[in-house]
Amino acid sequence: MHLEHDPEAVAGDEIAFADFLRVDIRVGTIVAAEVYEGARKPSLKLRIDFGPGIGERRSVGQVAALYTPAELIGRQVAAVVNFPPRQIGKAVSEALTLGFADTEGRVVLFSPDTPVPNGSRLF
Predict the structure, then answer these.
(1) Can you give the pTM of this predicted structure?
(2) Would you say residue 52 has pLDDT above 50?
Protein backbone atom coordinates (compact mmCIF):
# COMPACT_ATOMS: atom_id res chain seq x y z
CA MET A 1 0.00 0.00 0.00
CA HIS A 2 1.35 3.40 -0.98
CA LEU A 3 0.66 6.04 1.67
CA GLU A 4 1.98 9.15 -0.03
CA HIS A 5 0.14 12.09 -1.53
CA ASP A 6 -0.03 11.65 -5.31
CA PRO A 7 -1.79 14.50 -7.14
CA GLU A 8 -1.69 12.53 -10.41
CA ALA A 9 -3.21 9.34 -9.02
CA VAL A 10 -5.91 7.78 -11.15
CA ALA A 11 -8.88 5.75 -9.99
CA GLY A 12 -8.30 2.06 -9.30
CA ASP A 13 -9.75 -0.78 -11.32
CA GLU A 14 -13.54 -0.88 -11.52
CA ILE A 15 -15.19 -3.28 -9.07
CA ALA A 16 -18.71 -4.55 -8.61
CA PHE A 17 -20.88 -3.03 -5.88
CA ALA A 18 -21.00 -6.47 -4.24
CA ASP A 19 -17.19 -6.30 -3.84
CA PHE A 20 -17.49 -2.97 -2.03
CA LEU A 21 -20.12 -4.44 0.31
CA ARG A 22 -17.69 -7.18 1.36
CA VAL A 23 -15.44 -4.54 2.99
CA ASP A 24 -17.01 -3.84 6.39
CA ILE A 25 -16.15 -0.23 7.31
CA ARG A 26 -17.46 0.88 10.70
CA VAL A 27 -17.20 3.86 13.01
CA GLY A 28 -15.76 3.44 16.47
CA THR A 29 -14.56 5.63 19.32
CA ILE A 30 -10.92 5.53 20.38
CA VAL A 31 -10.88 4.54 24.06
CA ALA A 32 -7.11 4.11 24.51
CA ALA A 33 -4.01 5.22 22.62
CA GLU A 34 -0.30 4.93 23.23
CA VAL A 35 2.93 5.48 21.33
CA TYR A 36 4.11 2.29 19.65
CA GLU A 37 7.71 2.16 20.84
CA GLY A 38 10.05 0.46 18.38
CA ALA A 39 7.83 0.91 15.32
CA ARG A 40 9.69 1.61 12.06
CA LYS A 41 7.45 4.62 11.31
CA PRO A 42 5.90 6.91 13.95
CA SER A 43 2.85 4.90 15.01
CA LEU A 44 0.26 4.67 17.76
CA LYS A 45 -1.43 1.61 19.22
CA LEU A 46 -5.17 2.28 19.44
CA ARG A 47 -8.07 0.51 21.14
CA ILE A 48 -11.34 1.34 19.41
CA ASP A 49 -14.88 0.64 20.65
CA PHE A 50 -17.15 -0.37 17.77
CA GLY A 51 -20.23 -0.90 19.94
CA PRO A 52 -21.91 -4.02 21.29
CA GLY A 53 -22.08 -5.96 18.02
CA ILE A 54 -18.34 -5.84 17.31
CA GLY A 55 -16.82 -4.73 20.59
CA GLU A 56 -13.33 -3.32 21.07
CA ARG A 57 -10.58 -3.90 18.54
CA ARG A 58 -6.87 -3.06 18.56
CA SER A 59 -5.34 -1.13 15.69
CA VAL A 60 -1.87 0.14 14.86
CA GLY A 61 -1.82 3.36 12.86
CA GLN A 62 0.97 5.45 11.38
CA VAL A 63 -0.69 8.57 12.75
CA ALA A 64 1.87 9.78 15.32
CA ALA A 65 3.14 12.54 13.01
CA LEU A 66 -0.12 14.49 13.40
CA TYR A 67 -1.78 13.13 16.57
CA THR A 68 -0.86 12.57 20.20
CA PRO A 69 -2.43 9.72 22.16
CA ALA A 70 -4.22 12.14 24.51
CA GLU A 71 -5.98 14.04 21.72
CA LEU A 72 -7.30 10.85 20.14
CA ILE A 73 -9.20 9.57 23.19
CA GLY A 74 -12.91 10.03 22.51
CA ARG A 75 -12.44 10.68 18.77
CA GLN A 76 -14.51 8.68 16.33
CA VAL A 77 -12.71 7.05 13.40
CA ALA A 78 -13.56 4.77 10.51
CA ALA A 79 -11.94 1.35 10.21
CA VAL A 80 -12.21 -1.90 8.28
CA VAL A 81 -13.29 -4.52 10.82
CA ASN A 82 -13.44 -7.69 8.71
CA PHE A 83 -9.78 -8.15 7.74
CA PRO A 84 -7.98 -10.94 9.59
CA PRO A 85 -5.72 -9.83 12.48
CA ARG A 86 -2.31 -8.66 11.26
CA GLN A 87 0.99 -8.83 13.09
CA ILE A 88 2.75 -5.45 12.94
CA GLY A 89 6.08 -5.84 14.66
CA LYS A 90 5.32 -7.02 18.18
CA ALA A 91 1.72 -5.74 18.07
CA VAL A 92 -1.44 -7.24 16.58
CA SER A 93 -3.84 -5.07 14.62
CA GLU A 94 -7.47 -6.26 14.50
CA ALA A 95 -8.89 -3.34 12.51
CA LEU A 96 -7.49 -1.15 9.74
CA THR A 97 -8.00 2.46 10.80
CA LEU A 98 -8.59 4.58 7.69
CA GLY A 99 -6.96 7.84 6.71
CA PHE A 100 -5.66 9.91 3.83
CA ALA A 101 -2.14 11.19 3.18
CA ASP A 102 -1.66 14.95 3.32
CA THR A 103 0.77 16.74 0.99
CA GLU A 104 3.67 15.67 3.22
CA GLY A 105 2.62 12.01 3.39
CA ARG A 106 1.32 12.20 6.98
CA VAL A 107 -1.84 10.23 7.71
CA VAL A 108 -4.98 12.28 8.41
CA LEU A 109 -7.65 10.14 10.06
CA PHE A 110 -10.99 9.59 8.34
CA SER A 111 -13.90 10.28 10.69
CA PRO A 112 -17.48 11.56 10.61
CA ASP A 113 -17.99 15.30 11.06
CA THR A 114 -20.95 14.66 13.37
CA PRO A 115 -21.06 11.95 16.07
CA VAL A 116 -22.77 8.71 15.02
CA PRO A 117 -23.44 5.51 16.98
CA ASN A 118 -20.40 3.25 17.37
CA GLY A 119 -20.66 0.36 14.94
CA SER A 120 -22.41 2.40 12.23
CA ARG A 121 -21.49 1.01 8.83
CA LEU A 122 -20.25 3.09 5.90
CA PHE A 123 -22.52 2.91 2.89
Answers:
(1) 0.91
(2) yes
